């Protein structure tokens, strides 16, 4: 057929069904032992690892696409803390980047994780998982409802995934691609079952690429604007703004426990909490991990004091990493900057 | 890798409006005692010029920004 490339696959219809079929296959074929997903509990979405195909119907698989679920545990941390289990995870690009960063530091074994990555136009603030989350992914929300971190996100497609799913190019058609040999095998089986069709319309591929380009550009533009604005403020004002933020910290360590990157087994800030002043607490955390922050904004969400954590972390991190041309979690071949 | 950490600290000070010159790193071997002393003197002179650290002289309990607002942002 004209305009169809042999690259990848397409799925027509409900993308949630595609995810169900895919995860079911992963469990039944024994590719993984569990799927990291969510379940609804007392009106809240909590993380849950689904171990059998029957359980899948109950699970909230769109859970991964929701940024602001109420629990502290994140998908990435679930994978990291359940070493030994082979798990599949549905992740956004920022989470895929966190997985890459942790794999580089040998905290996650990529052989035991099957990553299903989604293109992501950005998450809305405080979105509830019970809503039509998948639907939300199709639209490009206006900047006013986007999370701060998503506005400055520079990577809207997963840099690494076994299977990549893209809903952003068309409301009816979902593009599906394999990123690894493992992923290719799984997709071949799905094709055999008639869930997906081989080949992608060239027009949709172009649309996807164009959309990704615009989204990534939006991130870089926001970063530049924020930086220019910051530098235009005189030093002493900048200083009192920063100190206002740092002093507000109550050392609850919610941001540490929610961050996919904070990976130390024995966090000195938690064990020696009393010895730190609030500002030193935050400065220590920033200096520890700003170079590998993937800009997911999880910390912003959990901070009870509303401190602009991702703002400070990302601007510090970018300053440092742009000098070493290192962007966290996009390239396996580059070792972390401060290790 | 200490150099990278020093860099990061300098970045943070710069970002906060304190100026990166407050931290420096010099390389010298144990045989270079004189060089070390010179560098230390230079640095302390520079710090004198820079004036006291704002971190030390600031009043505690300055107004705390509770809103997610960056410096230079119009009020939301
Ligand atoms: S930071 Fe936001 S826009 Fe970027 S991948 Fe994560 S959720 Fe999506
Ligand atoms: S510091 Fe915040 S924005 Fe950065 S990776 Fe951790 S949770 Fe995400
Ligand atoms: S979540 Fe907020 S208040 Fe709690 S430790 Fe982190 S920055 Fe401090």
β-strand percent of chain B reads: under 5%
What's the helix count of chain B? 3
Poorly predicted sequence stretches spanning 5 or more consecutive residues of chain B: 59-67
Structural class of chain A: alpha/beta
Quickly count the helices of chain A: 13
Q: Could you tell me which ligands this complex binds, including any ions or cofactors?
A: iron/sulfur cluster
Q: What is the rounded distance between the termini of chain B?
A: 41 Å
Instruction: Name the pair of protein chains with the most residues at their interface, and give those residue counts.
Output: A-B, 39 and 31 residues
The run of helices and strands of chain A is EHEEHEHEHHEEHEHHHHHHH
Tertiary shape of chain B: flat
Helical residue percent band of chain A? 40-55%
Number of strands of chain B: 0
Report strand order across the widest sheet of chain A.
3-2-4-5-6-7-1-8
User: Structural class, judged by helices and strands of chain B?
Assistant: mainly alpha
* Domains of chain A (count): 2
Number of strands of chain A: 8
* Quaternary class: heterodimer
Give the CA-CA distance, first to last residue of chain A.
51 Å
Average predicted local confidence, pLDDT of chain B: 62
Helical amount among residues of chain B, as a percent range?
40-55%
Average pLDDT score of chain A = 83
Task: Name a few traits of the molecule.
heterodimer, A: 339 residues, alpha/beta, 2 domains, eight-stranded mixed β-sheet, 13 helices, 15% strand, B: 76 residues, mainly alpha, flat, binds iron/sulfur cluster
General description of the model:
The complex is a heterodimer of chains A (339) and B (76). Chain A is α/β, with parallel strands linked by helices and 339 residues long. Chain A folds into 2 domains: 8-218, no CATH class; 223-324, no CATH class. Helices cover 41% and strands 15% of the residues of chain A. Chain A has helices at residues 15-28, 75-81, 93-104, 133-138, 148-151, 181-192, 202-232, 235-247, 254-258, 268-271, 278-289, 298-302, 309-323; strands at 4-12, 34-41, 44-50, 87-91, 113-118, 163-166, 173-178, 197-201. In chain A, helix 1 (15-28) packs across helix 6 and helix 8 packs across helix 11. The radius of gyration of chain A is 20 Å and the shape is globular. Residues 63-70 and 127-144 of chain A have low confidence and may be disordered. With 76 residues, chain B is mainly alpha-helical. Chain B has 3 helices and no strands. Chain B has a domain at 24-51. The longest helix of chain B has 18 residues, at 33-50. The interface between A and B is medium-sized, with 39 and 31 residues. The structure holds iron/sulfur cluster (SF4) (3 copies). Residues 67, 92-94, 120, 122-123, 149-150, 153, 156, 295-297 of chain A line the site of one iron/sulfur cluster.
